[in-house]
């Protein structure tokens, strides 16, 4: 908090004049992050003809551009989603945007388990990719000729191909089948 105050050119006690405690500050950071994410993601959804790749890219771009928010938003121990109503509402709105994303990627009618599984799959892929690029060694593992945008496009293609295979019912059989007992 001292570093935040120093960068804002205010006293290290100033944030506590607006928030009761540290939890309130983190909740406000998470709430702001969820709102920014929702706005940017909705804008991408509204303007894209390739929702899978463009939204993967938007997710990674948000994570890179708002690393402080991103790191607080998904830490259930500090983000305030369970203790601050405004933060919970902002997080719920962000989740609705992810549901819209999944519906755009695959508009077919789905069973209840598919209705939640697809957004979770897409969210997991986007979040995992963003986290590996920011916190992990992935950026350093990319060949020099492969940009982050190229990686995102390839990941999007792989997801689309997997979804297409699943949708057509041509699931690959496991390499080894268990024998009946």
Account of the protein in words:
It is built from nine helices and no strands. The N and C termini lie far apart (61 Å). It has a single domain, classed as Tetracycline Repressor, domain 2, CATH 1.10.357.10. With 181 residues, it is an all-alpha fold. Residues 170-181 have low confidence and may be disordered. The longest helix is centred in the first third of the chain and has 26 residues, at 22-47.
Biggest pleated sheet: none
Low-confidence regions: 170-181
Q: Can you tell me the CATH topology?
A: Tetracycline Repressor, domain 2
Q: Count of helical segments? A: 9
Order of helices and strands: HHHHHHHHH
CATH superfamily: Tetracycline Repressor, domain 2
Structural class: mainly alpha
- What is the top-level CATH class? Mainly Alpha
Q: What is the CATH architecture term? A: Orthogonal Bundle
Round the Cα radius of gyration to an integer and report it.
20 Å
Tertiary shape:
globular
């Amino acid at each position: 908090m001292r570093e935040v105050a120093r960068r804002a050119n205010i006293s290290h006690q100033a944030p506590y004049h607006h928030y009761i405690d540290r939890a309130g500050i983190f909740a406000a950071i998470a709430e702001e992050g969820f709102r920014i994410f929702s706005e940017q993601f909705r804008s991408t959804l509204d303007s894209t003809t390739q929702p899978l790749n463009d939204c993967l890219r938007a997710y990674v771009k948000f994570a890179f551009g708002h690393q402080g928010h991103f790191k607080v938003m998904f830490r259930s121990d500090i983000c305030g989603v369970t203790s601050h109503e405004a933060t919970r509402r902002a997080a719920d709105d962000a989740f609705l945007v992810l549901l819209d994303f999944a519906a755009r990627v695959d508009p077919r009618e789905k069973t209840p388990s598919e209705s939640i599984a697809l957004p979770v799959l897409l969210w997991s892929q986007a979040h995992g990719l963003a986290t590996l690029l920011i916190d992990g060694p992935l950026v350093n593992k990319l060949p020099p000729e492969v940009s982050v945008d190229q990686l995102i496009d390839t990941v999007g293609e792989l997801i689309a191909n997997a979804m297409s295979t699943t949708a057509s019912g041509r699931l690959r059989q496991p390499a080894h089948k268990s024998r009946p007992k």
